[in-house]
Structure prediction request, 778 residues.
Amino acid sequence: MTTTLPTLAAEPATTRPALVKRRGGVRGRNRRWVILFLAPWAVGMAVFFVYPLLATVYFSFTNYNGLDTADFVGLRNFVYLFTGDPVVRTAAYNTLWLVVVLTVLRVAFGLGVASVLARVTTGNSLLRTLCYLPSLVPPVAATLTFVFVFNPGTGPVNSVLGWFGIDGPLWFNDPSLSKPALTLLTLWGSGEIMIIILAAILDVPKDLYEAAQLDGAGPVMQFRKITLPTIAPVLLFGVVNSVIFALQYFTQAIVAGSVASGSADMVGNSQIMGYPNNSTLTFPVWLYQQGFRAYHMGYASAMAVVLFIVSFAFTAILIRQLRAGDSEEARS
Amino acid sequence: MRTRPGRSRLRFRSALIVTTAGVLAAACTAGGGGASGPAAAPGADQAVTVQVWSNFSDRELGIVKEALDKYHGKHTNITIDNQGSQDDDKITQSIRSGNPPDVAISFTTDNIGQFASSGAWQDLKPYIERDKYDLDDIPKAVLDYTEFNGNRVALPMLADVYGLYYNKDLLTAAGLSAPPKTTAELLDYAKKLTVKNPDGSIQVAGFLPQMGFYAFKPQIVGTMFNAQWVDKDGKSSLGKDQGWKDMFTWQKELVDFYGWDNLQKFTAGLGQEYSADNGFHAGKVAMAIDGEYRTAFLADQTPGLNYGTATLPTSKPENHGGGYTTGTIIGIPKGAKNPGAAWDLIKYLTSDTDALVGLANGLHNVPSTKTSLSSPDLKLGDNFKPFLDAFANKNLTSNPASTIGDQYLKIVSDFGVSWQTGTVPDLGKGLADLDKQIDDAKALGK
Prediction:
């Protein structure tokens, strides 16, 4: 019997282009749908990210007050930023301080709390909820509460310290303690990092720990050799997240400064920004002051460009470090 | 007919590009433009809605509404859209986006320099000349803070005047019968009125000299020493002016009397400036500098407090009687849709004695014309009188308008904080450095 089954190979050559064309049409229609569905995101991305980014770079080379036309001034804003503005150095120092201290403590605190919570077997849901809850408190409300709690004259913290004969410090009213006080506030509200790290810890395969136990590894060794390497990508995320968080530190700093200064309802008043003694004046706060209070929008744009470059560099370096670590691990 | 796929794709991409460009253009374009000459007020048969933005809220917005309603009663064709809680940032944004209100009311004079130099607020001079608006009825210090380099873009709608508040009971207990008139007396009174606890901490402070705390701000305290901000060329003159040196020296003496840490701990325990726990309300501070509006807060929050008011003490007797003034300003933003009607309303709110007196009585501010000061309808109480007297005095002063907003005030305030904590070794050099900082900051915007 001769076969009559149709096969693609046996089809006349003339039918192939039609099939291809039909497939191309379907693909084209699909592509249009994809573009259509992506359009809102693309427009949002263009309007709220790409355009502002490009505009910021452009304005950083101009004398622009936000009301009038922008005049090109070359590198003048950057020269003033690096050589002429005495306050920006204080602001940069404060932000750098927060980047270093907040990043280390936030990740370490999140890791520590998550490690403890991962081992708790009774009432763990309640404990996890309690530890996470502070991160849901709006930053302004949390800051107001902290400044009240740490008020040197009337706050409960110094009252409790007084019971033990300790003369409580000035906390938010002391230039040397205002940033540590802000750090405490941030750690209290670092539930997001904690919950992400906790999820990563709980995701580590149990059989790795069982095998390590059989090999005689104690809890510390297991943490160092199993937990930490396995959750390293999540920790890196935590570090990058914390670095960017610290670089953009604004709300808590400006609210704490204004409330501690005694003028809580005058947040827009430049004279109280950074109280006490500019110790809470972060780079973004000074950027805001320059752009919206002093009408130096061009200069503020130059500050924003520098902040963006620094954020980008921090992130790139950290990701490269992780990749280098991964490659080394893969080779070994 | 079916369209060819290639052409369809091309059209789709073109449409996408055009749409995106349109959205970007809409987002980036600042519309509107200023009027070149004085616009005529609308005719009686022409219905117009005038949008008024201010930062008033709650009860105070209601007081403003009463004044606006009276205006509407006289001009029934002009409807007022009264929007509160609109600060300078929002007004600026609306100007930038080309959709500003017809009338903008600002609580601060800090931004007048930028509003004038950038053209963000319209020049009122053509309107003033056309309608023969009487500027002579406004004190010189008030005229100064409502214009910049001769460019009048605003008029005062009520004023704030700062004076000395004193607790009569505490003064009597200390054997003091009258408030201080000179800064030397103020220093002496402050020491006599201070009560310390056995451990050395402050129980009652005679007078708080911390820079930036409550109303102890350089622009207010500086007037007590006749301190000058700029020289005749418009350059910062703090380093060359004896008044600033006198002020900071005087301030440091009082800070050292209390002890910095002692003072800081005491003020940290005081309530917020505009709360009922304010140190003066609570009887923990015997004397304080504050605006005339404090009389309303005291009447509302601490009606039982036995207090008095006086004009600010000065370092030289010949400068006494005035004090510091600032206030609410009103103008027409660039791009306002009904500038003619806006000016008519502004003229009413800033020069009509009944309107000003009604607003002053309701908001507990000083009415901003000389005529309204003597109105028999002013019902603000005895403690308000020193503020009215100061407003009419030739020694009334204000701080100069600047293109850098209140940045120069922050620079001086920051210096004051460093100075009072003892970290500035050379006052003269420190003040000269401030001049450079301020002039450099101004130059950045040129």
Q: What stands out?
A: Chain A has a mean pLDDT of 88. Chain A touches chain B through 59 residues (CB under 8 Å). The first strand of chain A starts at residue 62 and ends at 63.
